[in-house]
Amino acid sequence: MTVIVLSGPIGAGKSSLTSILSKYLGTQPFYESVDNNPVLPLFYKDPKKYAFLLQIFFLNTRFHSIKAALTDDNNVLDRSIYEDSLFFHMNADIGRATKEEVATYDELLDSMMKELEHMPKKHPDLLVHIDVSYETMIKRIQKRGREFEQLDYDPTLEDYYKRLLSYYEPWYENYDYSPKIKIDGDKLDFMASEKDRQEVLDTIIAKLKEMDKLPEDWTPSHN
Ligand SMILES: Nc1ncnc2c1ncn2[C@@H]1O[C@H](COP(=O)(O)OP(=O)(O)O)[C@@H](O)[C@H]1O
Ligand SMILES: Nc1nc2c(ncn2[C@H]2C[C@H](O)[C@@H](COP(=O)(O)O)O2)c(=O)[nH]1
């Protein structure tokens, strides 16, 4: 079948769509374990001190999850290793990593990406990118309610989030590990609107059929 990876900024809806899509396709979801990430709250308290450690934590967990996802060939992965570098280099660009840490990170990432080239399935079949505006991102971050991600917790997060969005634009344009589609996360409320959810699913299914990853006559009852 297929390996689909979700991408998108913080709070875009990756985990939510991973769950919806994996149920619809009858495939296995792989979620990013954020809530048992001991470094994440430390990073938001002291980004300069913990940016490198947090990135090594994420890189390690993403490496293992993408390897598992590429092994069983029948799943949906909530975010992937492909965005890891975006986050770290953005933090490095704002002075949160030394040049030695950047060199070490880049070498480690390169070794891991080379390792993936030896996998039976080297890359996902499809990237589903959820595009959101800053306003929607903030609304979703507030809705989800993680204290350390809130602007009240740290007003400088406004610049951080806006910068993150600016890094995602070229990242998506340059992404070429697999075919890709973009979902308008501002317009489509796939959580509250059945119509919007079906529109998102129909878009993804149509792309998979176009890529011959699903038979033309595929329907959810196939599961
Ligand atoms: N398309 C959407 N429309 C409205 N709310 C959404 C949408 N996608 C996600 N949400 C809500 O936004 C919050 C963040 O969603 P989540 O799936 O955790 O995002 P991510 O995994 O990208 O960080 C959650 O409270 C979720 O219910
Ligand atoms: N510094 C980094 N932070 C990251 C990375 N991946 C995710 N995150 C942060 C952003 C959110 O606070 C939280 C969960 O991300 P979601 O996109 O699932 O909301 O973790 C990273 O690689 N580096």
Low-confidence stretches: none
Major pleated sheet: 5 strands, parallel
Rounded to an integer in angstroms, the radius of gyration calculated over CA atoms is 18 Å
For the largest beta sheet, what order do the strands appear in spatially?
2-3-1-4-5
Number of helices in the DSSP assignment: 8
Helical proportion, percent range: 40-55%
Tertiary shape? globular
Distance between the termini: 12 Å
Q: What portion of the residues fall into strands of 2 or more residues? A: 5-15%
> What is the residue-averaged pLDDT?
95
Order of helices and strands: EHEHHEHHEHHEH
Q: What would you call the structural class?
A: alpha/beta
Bound molecules: adenosine-5'-diphosphate, the ligand Nc1nc2c(ncn2[C@H]2C[C@H](O)[C@@H](COP(=O)(O)O)O2)c(=O)[nH]1
How many beta-strand segments?
5
Keywords: ATP-binding, Kinase, Nucleotide-binding, Transferase
GO molecular function, one term: ATP binding
Active site: 78 (proton acceptor)
GO cellular component, one term: cytoplasm
Task: Explain what you see.
It is a single chain. Helix 3 runs antiparallel to helix 4 (84-93) and helix 3 (47-72) packs parallel to helix 5. This protein has helices at 14-25, 39-45, 47-72, 84-93, 99-116, 134-144, 157-174, 194-210; strands at residues 3-7, 28-30, 75-78, 126-131, 180-184. A 5-stranded parallel β-sheet has the order 2-3-1-4-5. It is an alpha/beta fold. It contains 8 helices and 5 strands. The protein is 53% helix and 10% strand. The longest helix has 26 residues, at 47-72. Bound molecules: adenosine-5'-diphosphate (ADP) and the ligand Nc1nc2c(ncn2[C@H]2C[C@H](O)[C@@H](COP(=O)(O)O)O2)c(=O)[nH]1. Residues 8, 10-16, 140, 143-144, 185, 188-191 line the site of adenosine-5'-diphosphate.
